[in-house]
Design a protein that fits this description.
- The model has no long low-confidence stretch (mean pLDDT 87).
- This protein starts with 6 loop residues before the first helix and ends with a helix.
- By secondary structure, it is mainly alpha-helical.
- The protein is built from seven helices and no strands.
């Protein structure tokens, strides 16, 4: 949509992503469903296609998976939106990660740290699954794309679990399938 947001809305965007940063166990992608709810459903700043395109573009680009956050912010409010979203998502989690990693490094062999680490694994898996589900819903919901989308999801899951194939190859297959109209 790319419009100039009032300062109050930019501050709200920054604060929303600041809070999401503290919930982004497993990476920023785990909070994509909440970002979708906020940016698309609640505020109407982005459309469904804009949101999905931002994530797909950032995931296809080399670099960290957090790249989709400034893309979303840019789509909402240009460079100011990109800066607000990126600073919001990075600031708290970076400071918290730095502090916790320093604390945990000196206590990594304690039962509490081992239990905490083991307990977070299913949370991360659940959050990433929720993100994948949100991104797949528009394709699974469309009768013309349902079979292709389910086949592509199944193939991706199988390849991820059974091989050490780099994700970029699976993204490439998905892009080709989309370009051919299969998904």
């Amino acid at each position: 949509m790319l419009s100039a947001l009032p300062a109050a809305d930019l501050l709200e965007l920054f604060l929303r992503f600041l809070v999401l940063s503290l919930l982004s166990i497993g990476g920023a992608m785990s909070t994509a469903p909440e970002m979708h709810r906020y940016l698309v459903v609640e505020r109407g700043w982005l459309g469904e296609a804009d949101f999905t395109t931002a994530i797909a573009l950032a995931q296809a680009a080399p670099g960290p998976n957090v790249l989709f956050v400034p893309v979303l912010g840019f789509q909402v409010a240009g460079l100011a939106g990109a800066a607000a979203a990126l600073l919001g998502i990075l600031l708290p989690s970076t400071l918290l990660s730095l502090g916790v990693s320093r604390w945990g490094a000196t206590r990594r062999d304690t039962a509490l740290v081992r239990a905490f680490t083991a307990g977070l694994a299913p949370v991360v898996v659940g959050l990433v699954f929720a993100t994948g589900w949100l991104l797949a819903l528009p394709f699974i919901g469309a009768p013309t794309h349902r079979a292709g989308a389910l086949a592509l999801i199944g193939l991706t899951a199988l390849l991820t679990l059974r091989t050490k194939l780099a994700p970029i190859w699976m993204i490439l297959v998905g892009a080709v399938a989309g370009a051919l109209g299969w998904v």
